[in-house]
Request: fold
Amino acid sequence: MFFFFNTTKQFPKSRAAAKKTVVLDSDGLSEAVETAKQLAREHLSVSQYTEFTALKGMLQTRRLYLALGSEMNDLNECNQSEKWKRTYVACFSNEHRENVAMWWMYGYKGASRVTTRAGYKSRIPLRLTFQNSAVLRCLVDHIEFETINPVLGKNAEDACSHRTMFSVSGTSFHDILYRSEDGTPTPNTAKEYKLPDGQLLLDCEPLTSYVKDAGWLYEKETRFAVFLKKPLPCIKRISIPIGEMLESMSILVGPCDNQDRAIDRVRQLLINAHLADCQVKPSSYRIQFPDNISC
Reply:
């Protein structure tokens, strides 16, 4: 069965980025998915905001960890469909400029304090940037996954992978499509989407993992999702080898107490992982994040 968009109008040509406004009805879901996938393939690179301990675990195992979708921080998204209980995701950003909100949410807020050679303890937020060509080869063309031991795999650095047989119904590497609360057009890199009157697009199971509210637009998210045929009880993460992605990686050290010490610590970690050629640079931002991050 084929699905089509219903195009309602064209923006004025005088607008800098003239785009179509497209109504997503029940006949447009399949094309929305294909549009999201095509957009993701057009990026030159994608990035992850993270922190030092997570990078250490990634380098030790040379694997990327995908989290269970129902455990994500956007409850409006992950509570909408039962499909999330059998969907695992890894999230990236296709925005090349630094983002202060993501430095805080994903790089600093949950970061462990790392001890430098001089005995100085500091949180080290990082932005890892991967060449998209390497991402496509490692993720999209890959079919083997491993589960993470739910007891030993609580921390990335001591995660214990083991092979478990489970059925994958499909994978997807795609850009997130955003929608506003009132259904008005929300910008995306190719088209603008509009909800039909009275329809909540997040309720559509075929679009599980593809649509978020416009409040998350600042993340400009690109996502890799693995859809299983059945849920895996007690398994919160699965993993995938990413050796080629790591070889294409460059690192930005985010705002922290002492960037020089942090950069030295990151470079030593890369040398130990035989990735000494990886580019490491400091963030252009100087931000004093609050030390009390329990909120």
In short: The chain has one domain: 23-282. Helices lie at 29-41, 52-61, 75-78, 100-108, 132-140, 243-247, 259-272. The longest strand covers residues 168-175.
